[in-house]
Each structure stands twice: as C-alpha cells, then as structure tokens.
Amino acid sequence: MSLETFLIALVGLAVIVGASVVSRRTGLAAPLLLLVLGLVASYVPGVPHIELEPEWILSGVLPPLLYASSTKVPAIDFRRNLKMIGWLSIVIVVISTLVIGFVVHALFAELPLALCFALGAVVSPTDAVAATSIGKRLGLPHRVMTVLEGESLVNDATALVLLRTALAALVAGTFSVWGAIGDFAYAVVVAVVIGGVVGWVTVAIRARLSDPVITTAISLAVPFIAFFPAEELHASGVLAVVVAGLVTGNRGLKRLSARDRQSSATNWATIEFLAENAVFLLMGLQLPTLVADIAGEDIGLSTMATIAVLVLGLLVVVRAVGVIVPRLVDRKLPARLEQHRDRHEQIEQRLAAVDPSTEAEQRRYDIFRRRLAASAADVDFYESERLTWRHTLVIGWAGMRGVVTLAAAQTIPSEVEHRSLVILVAFAVAVGTLVLFTPTLPPVIKRMGFEETSPEDRRSEVGTLLQELVSTTSERLGPLDQLTVAGEPLDPAVAERFRQRFASMLSAGSRSEEDAPTAQQMDQSHALQRLWLDELKESLAEERAIGAYDAATLQQAQKILDAMETRFGTV
After folding, report:
1. I need a surface site. Which of 11, 141, 218, 375 has the fewest CB within 10 A?
2. Max mean pLDDT range (90-104, 144-158, 344-358, 400-414)
C-alpha cells in the first residue's frame, strides 16, 4: 500500500466518523453529509480519481452489510410479519421494477426496455437504516420497525435477482416473463437452502470452540461462505447471506456463549458502520466523473434529471398504493382472530381430558402444548399489535433509498451503454428520497402519537418473565437439596449460597458478605451455576419460540442471563 492510499483511507475514516458525530448531534442524515463531503473533496486538487469495480461492491460490500443487519432480527418477529414483509419486499419491488421499466421506455424510447427494467430494479429496494434510526429515537412501535428492517433485507435480494435478469436480457436482446419467474424461483429456493445450511453449520462449529477470537474470525467469513456458492449456482447470493444471518442470530442465542456473541456483535457493528458510510462517501467522490461521462452522451443532464424526477414520483405512488392494499385486506382480521381463539379454547378443553401414560406420549403432549401456546400467542400479538392506518402511513413514508441502490447501480458492467445515466438516476433518486423523507419522517411519527411502554411496565414484564424462567428451571431440575452434581449430593452450604446469590443476580442486586467457600464447594458451585444457566437459556429459548413476550422484554432477559454468564466463575 502506497503512502498516498494510506493517507486517503485515513482521511476517509476521519470524515466518516466526523459526519456521524455531526449527524447524531444535529439530526442531519449522515448519508447526505457524506455525499456532499465526497462531492466537495472530488474538486480538491490532488484528490485522485475514484472508480469502483462493480464486483467489489456486490461481493465485497453487500454481503457483510446484509449479514450484520440480518443477525439482529428476531426469528419470531420475522415470522409473524412475513406476509407484510413478503408483500413489500417481493411484490412491491417487482411491481415497481415493471412500472418504472415500461413508463421510462415509453417516454424515452431510445433507452432499451431491458435497461429500463434494470433501472427499476436498482431503485426499487428501500433502505431502513435512516428510518429505523429515527424510529428508535422517537419510539416507533416495534412491529413497524420489524417490517421496515425485514423489508430492507429481503427486497435487496429481490432487486438484485431482477437486475441480473434484466442485464441478461439486455445482452441477449430478448426478455421472457416466464423465464424471469423461473429464474427468480430457482434463485430463491437454492439461496434459502444454502443460507440455512451455512448458518446452521457455522454456529455448530463455533459452539464447539471456546476462544472468542476464533469464533469471531469464523463469523467474519460466514457471509462470504454463503454468498459465493449461491452465486456460483446462479442463485441469489444476497438472499443466502440474509438467511445465514437470520439462522446465526437466532440459533446463536442458544448455542453460543455471551462472550462470543458480544465480541462478534461489536466487530460486525464496526464493519457495518464503516462499509455503509464508505459507499456514500465514495459515491460523492465519483459524481463529477459520472456527470462528465453523461455529458458526452446523446442523453444529457436535463434528460437525466427528468428521468430521475419521473422515477422518484413513480416510486412514491407505487409505495403509497402498495402499503394500502394489505390494510384493506386486513379489515376481516378481527373476525378471523376470533375464530382462531374459539378453536384454541375447544382444543384446550380436549387436552384437559388427556392423561399421557408413557414418556413418549408425554413428550408429544408437551410439544403439542408448546405449539398451541405459540399459536395462541400469535393471536394475542395480532390483536394487540394490529397494523392500523397510522402504522401504514409511517411504513409508506419510510421509503428512503440508500446504500443498496447505489451499490446495485455500480454492479452494471462498464460496457453497457447508458450505464452512467442509470447510475446518476439511481444517485439522484437515493438523494431525493433522503431529502424528501428523512426530515419529514420525525414529524409524521410524532403526529401519529404512538404510545411507548413505560420503564416501570417494562421492568415489571421482565421480572415476570424471569420468575417464569426460574420456575420452569426449578421444576425441571428439582429442589436444590435433592440435586446431585458430578454424582455427589449437593453440599447444603452450596445450595444456600446459590439461593442467595442467584436471587441477587436476577434482581441485579449486590452480593452479600459470606465466608470463603472451600475448593470442593467452589467446584460444586461452578457446576450448579452452569447447570442452572443452561436450563435458564433453554427455558428462554422456549419462551422466545412461543412469543408470549415482546422482543424488547426477551432481549432484556437475555442481557441479564448474559451478564450472569459473564460473571460465571466468581461464586
């Protein structure tokens, strides 16, 4: 690496950090600041010409970005909102691509239809980073946050598959609707299988290792392990990365230690921060070159601006109509939920008369009970967290485009005619949505008057959950006085110390003064605490699968168990 390259990278890092600090203090969108700073820097004498290779963006930037985001999405929330997420991230993206493609081609016939579809695919996926950062600060309901985050993960895969299909049609000179549908189905199925396998296997490997440095090193390779095999099989590498992240994030809560998860989370947050902001900064640096390229083409800047405004308007209209449709369909939801509740009551009455006589019957009975509890919790969720017109308005207003739009535009091969036009339009649309929605979203959210859960209610709910976990664990393991550890009866002193210490840790209290334990008591205390922690984590995993508590409560309980695990060994 030359000294010049090192200095540029160092200055770039300083600019990214500085822009983020200014953004947090002023409320200005960091992507906009970085675009402007990059544009200004491009005119500074001595700053070299920047040109990104499309493959570097697709295979080097997008996988870690999407993986870092997907590991943070709870599986139960994703499942419960799958219908809405699928509608926004697949149906609306496809409709946006088709509408933009046909309209732009009809008004600007000199642009090939396949290239217009490619433009539609590039600008169709939303980016939830700005919206969710605003939403967290202003108390946006958790379900809306989940929908926005889930949409931004899956729609990237949809858009990139459509983009690849459009570019292939551009090269071949023909476009087949049925062929595109078949390619899309194949890309999705293969990607889901590969992502699921990679996530499952890598978590299993990391769970067998005790060094957080090694497990974190493996986690850094996971998005690429999922991405490249899927791409080699002509599937969606991006979707494979998202699925691997979902599996890793949720299965890792049970299989990986708190230290491993905390170490990986810190590293991935840093990578996500640098990669995402670097794309906007580099895009600003590239802007003068793209403007110069398009100035030499038959289609000038005025035409580019017209297309950008047209595309932005079409995106706003399509999203507005798109978010209204599910709301209209859900008008019969209360009646359907009432039917489900009646059915649950009938099943509960039948189960009350069942008396399992064997261990196998008891296991099947318990499994069915948990499934019934999960189904009942789903009904409660859809009743208490129903998406209203206020939620729909916020979801429709959160139509920002960001890093994926800019990165996807960069993946168009340099030999494609009018490439600079597509990139500039994508750039203008991304900036336009950030300018239009970022400053107006906070007042819209405040106007909706969403109610936040009070800290007192949250603490009470967390306390209730912890009591349930302790009760379930106690029932499974039996009374402390009757436990055996390593084949030996538990020392009464250890049992008493554990009761006091355990209650103190769960209530976040301080430790009471006590006599120093003997070596044998220390060994038993370690084994007992490990046993209880494992059972508590298992009970929490079951509660997470049932979904009777919301994600924030489950996350807080997880933090408490993680803190206990971190302090493990000091009994």
Report:
1. 11
2. 90-104
Residue 306 and residue 194 share a domain: yes
Q: Are 524 and 490 in contact (CB under 8 A)?
A: yes
Answer yes or no: is pLDDT of 20 > 70.
yes
Place of tokens 């990237």: 156
Give dist(CA 410, CA 61) in Å, integer: 12
* Burial degree of 411 (CB within 10 A; 0-12, 13-18, 19+): buried
Pairwise CA distance, residues 145 & 441, whole Å: 13
462 & 439 share domain? no
Q: Are residues 211 and 288 in the same domain?
A: yes
Neighbours of 298 (CB within 10 A): 8
pLDDT at 329: 80
Mean predicted confidence (pLDDT) in 510-517:
49
Residue type, 41: A
Which residues have CB under 8 Å from 197's CB, separation 6+?
none
Confidence of residue 509 (pLDDT cuts 50, 70, 90): very low
Query: Do both 436 and 475 map to the same domain?
Result: no
Taking the CA atoms of 328, 443, 428 and 431 in sequence, report the sign of the dihedral they define. Answer: negative
